[in-house]
Design goal:
129 residues, 6-stranded antiparallel sheet, 8 strands, 57% strand
Length: 129
C-alpha cells in the first residue's frame, strides 16, 4: 500500500493536477544522489492527460510540471538503466520500518528505488525548451 498521500507537499501536487496522479508515462529528468546530511533529489516531468483529443488524434495534455522528490538521510539506492527518456509506469512511496522508499518502476529507461529517512515533494510549472 502506498503512503504517497502522506508525503509533505503532496497536497500541492493534487491541487496542481486536480487529482492524485500515479505518474504513468512521466519522465525522470534527473537524479542527484548525495550522502547525508545533503538530500538526494529526483526530478520528474509529469502532466495531466485529458479525455479529449488533439487534431492529430492524441489525448490532449496540459498542466506540465516538474515534480521534485527530496529524500533526506538516504539509506539505500537500487537503480538500473538510464537513457534519453526514462519513462515510468508509476511512482509510489512506501514506508518500511523507519524508512520511506521512493519506487520508480520503469516502462523504458531508469528503474529502481531510493530509501531514506524522510521524503518530501515540491511542484512547479514545467516549460519545455
Amino acid at each position: 500500500m502506498t503512503d504517497i498521500e502522506a508525503v509533505p507537499g503532496w497536497a500541492d501536487v493534487i491541487e496542481w493536477f486536480g487529482y492524485s496522479p500515479n505518474f504513468h508515462d512521466a519522465e525522470v529528468v534527473s537524479i542527484d544522489l548525495r550522502r547525508d546530511p545533503e538530500p538526494s533529489v529526483v526530478r520528474v516531468h509529469g502532466w495531466r492527460t485529458n479525455s479529449d483529443t488533439t487534431e492529430s488524434g492524441h489525448f490532449r495534455q496540459d498542466r506540465h510540471a516538474l515534480v521534485t522528490f527530496t529524500i533526506q538521510g538516504t539509506q539505500t539506492v537500487k537503480l538500473n538503466g538510464w537513457n534519453h527518456q526514462n519513462v515510468l509506469s508509476e511512482i509510489s512511496v512506501d514506508r518500511e520500518g523507519d524508512c520511506y522508499i521512493l519506487r520508480l518502476p520503469e516502462i523504458y529507461g531508469v528503474d529502481g528505488e531510493i530509501a531514506g529517512m524522510h521524503v518530501s515533494v515540491a511542484i512547479e510549472p514545467f516549460v519545455q525548451k
